[in-house]
Each structure stands twice: as structure tokens, then as C-alpha cells.
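Quick one, T. Sequence first:
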Amino acid sequence: MTSPTISSAEQSRTARVGAFLFRFRGFLPVPFLLIPLLVPGQQTRIGWLIGALFVLAGETMRLAGVSAAGTVTRRRSRNVQRLVTYGIFAWVRNPLYVGNLLIWTGFVIGSGVLWFLPIAIALFAVEYSLIVRYEEGVLESIFGQEFLAYKAATPRWIPMPPKSRPSGPHDLGEAARSEISTFAQYAALAVAFWIKARFLSGS
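C-alpha cells:
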């Protein structure tokens, strides 16, 4: 059995840094949430309404991505069997990460710590651009020209209507079940921000 070819993109310096961040990506949201929780901010009803819309939009993107790619997303293993290019993946190559950005943005807006918002977006851009360099290098190694054609036709971050609408299987029920822990985190964060506003605002 021959060893898989490793693409030059996967071996680049930025991809290697991204591989390191990828291993610890579960901890990357910590500053996005700790700073809004710990730093004083003016929470308002309109702020949380706008924030909730961002969270809803982000979670919708996540559900669309997981329902198409499955609960083990297409880039978590070198043993992936297929390149998912339909559904939300026909609009944007990284819908789960775009969804995460919208969700984190929503909580920052709701927290009222608005000065942190451009910093959070800049941190996201740096961290996840590096991670995506690694992930896309892996996909290029596995799928070669098939992935390069998809990459050329589909934007990385900003969703755009695709020229064609390829179809494929979706399992929204499985996606929703896989997000139960995420929904619980939203609830816990909502309670934490309520406690902050009610007892720790200093007003």
C-alpha cells in the first residue's frame, strides 16, 4: 500500500502553524467569551436582540454544514471518503467557521463590550486563516484536482450564490442532535451574562 501524497500546500509554513492551532481549536473561543464576560460592558435589550440574530444566523450555517458533511466533518480525518461540495458548501468553503464567527460576534454585541469586537474579528481572521491553510492542504493532498476545482469556484469566507446547485444527502436530525451540547453552551452563556448584568454590573 503506497503512502498518500502530501501536497506542497500542506507542507507550507503557514499550514504547519495551522496544524498546531487545529489541534487546540476547541480552546480558541475562550478569549472571545471570557473578555465579554469579565470586562464591564453596557448590556441592552436591543444589543441582545441584534446579538441573538447573529447567533441564530451562525447556528443556521452550522446546522446546514453539519447536516451535509456529517457529524465528523470532512476535514477531521485523512480517511475522508468524499469531498462535500453541495448544500451550504456550494456557497462557501468553511460554513462552520463562518457560523462560529457570527455566533461569537453575537455574544460580543450582546455583552456590550463593543470595543472588543474589531479585536475579536482580527483574532478570528488570523487564527482561522492559518487553520484553513492546513485543512485545505490536507484536502488537496487527498482529493487533488477535484479539490482545486472546488476551491477555485467557491469562496473561502463570504458566501456567494453558486453557478450550479449540486445536490446531496442531508441529515438535519443528526446535525441537531450533534449540536445539543452547543445549545447547552448557549444557555449557560446566556445565564452567565444575565448574572453579570444583574449582580456584577455595578449599577
